[in-house]
Amino acid sequence: MDNLNYGIIGNCRTAALISKAGSLDWCCLPQFDSTSVFAKLLDEQNGGSFEFILDEGYQVHQEYHPNTAILVTQFSNGTDVFEVHDFMPRHHKLNNGKYNAPPEIVRYIRYVSGKPTFRVKYDPRLEYGLGETKHYVKEDFIASLTRQQKYDTLFLYTSFNKNDVLEGNEITLTQDGYFLICYNEKILKATTEKMALELERTKVYWLDWADKTPNYHKFGAQIIRSAITLKMLTYDKTGAVLAAATTSLPETIGEVRNWDYRFCWIRDASMVIKVVSELGHKNSAKRYLQFIIDLMPDKDEKLQIMYGINKEKTLTEKTLDHLDGYKGSKPVRIGNAAYKQKQNDIYGILMDVIYEQLMKFSNDIENGEELWSITKGIVWIVGKHWKEPDKGIWEFRGEDRHFTFSKVLCWVALDRAIKVARIFGKTHKIEKWTALEQEIKEDIHNNAWNSDINSFVQSYGSRHLDASVLLMESYGFIHARDPKFVSTVRAIEEGLSNDGLLYRYKNEDDFGLPSSSFTICTFWFINSLFKIGEEEKALEHFERLLGYSNHLGLFSEDIDFKTKRLLGNFPQAYSHLALIECAINFSKKRSEERILESIR
């Protein structure tokens, strides 16, 4: 079965996907949302790739170097063995505390034994492959350039014969070598020794980063792999967090639910930052808060649901009709029209992150006055707009509705604002804000509960179930053992579960009934089972779901109900943050049991 059997490499500036066979099939340079230079992922013929071609006697094995973002693909026929160590350089610059993270990919070729032979297919297609890319062998590098649509260049430095590389001639390996793909021409000469040093420095960076993450007794390896993946989806320059590294990987093969996820959704990013800061990585949290502060210069400015990674506010959606799409799933989109949507939940999500950071790092928050201004502004906006319908968390492109999740998060905005007011000693606001908080809470209980089906529902007055209402408990709106929440979990299990995987909802949306499971919803369901006391059942579901990841433990956005193949953009920040939340719950439970056993 075809699956998203890819590994991600990255350096918090951009990222690339390498297939299980070692083919570089997706990369945008110089940053995440730039045009692609390799896009075989979206068009097998015209996208462009960088592949190793070997005879059939070679077996391929792929894994990450432990606790790093360095991907190791080994080729072996028993006698002749070599490895490709793929990475994007990232390490501390000397003396100034900043990072060296150039828009480059290093493919370090490590000789292991025998006389391995391979050919290379080096076929970049610049600017999404819109025009022809031509290659020129120069003294120090191979230059690839296009000038039809827009002028762009790419440079390949290598220890191997450049003509052999470009012409696909057989190469016999007798010692270590390298390929260095650069967006910019190098000033200093590249050598195998320098690339080996880059590899070691990058390894040290990731090992140091992973070492700051706490050790968990249970699912520690999955937590670390997910945390490193989330780190690779953060954009250092501004603090933005991407939803995923790709565009237009379909939720269902052959359908049109294909979106560009190389942007910063306030909701996804805030949830990621909450989890990452729980793991102790406060610099990411501080940079993200600054990203938000920079986006909100005017007190009356409404927050968009999403922004470009460099704080762009206009993300015009276009289609690339010359690309066939992943497995023929058109259209391929760049940009995302959803940036214009109104979603009232983002204010509560953002207030929750602000409150969490103030609680965790209150002695180290530099922007207290700006955060207090944002808090007051959010309360003002929520007070003015919470009664209005919106598009909801799932971004329905049809008519606006009174979505339960949006209302609950309006309540969260007030609840966290009151707590922030107490932290800052601004008690004069509390009485007025508490009255509004209570009004929203009563409104939800009166309108979102359906006594016929004993569940909170998707939107006011409907009978439709929705997995997002499971988050009512984790945001503190309702207690886990409250009979209303317990019966909601049961109703959602009965109505939305399909072979242990969850639908987001089952009512038809703008594109018909979804036929794949939204991975984060299954994690939410597992967490809810855990919280209502069904811990063994939750653990069983969790371990089964982990088995649906790819060979490297990575998840995309969706899982096909029937085949269990991964679908949707990849790797998906949402899926990995929810995996971490579940894993931490199980690990904490195990720690508590160990403490009790030792006391006995």
From TrEMBL:
Residues in GH15-like domain copies: 223-583
Keyword tags: Hydrolase
Recorded superkingdom: Bacteria
Coiled coil (residue ranges): none
Transmembrane region(s): none
GO molecular function: hydrolase activity
Domain Trehalase-like N-terminal: 8-139
Name of protein: Glycoside hydrolase family 15 protein
Native source species: Flagellimonas iocasae
Record lineage: Bacteria, Pseudomonadati, Bacteroidota, Flavobacteriia, Flavobacteriales
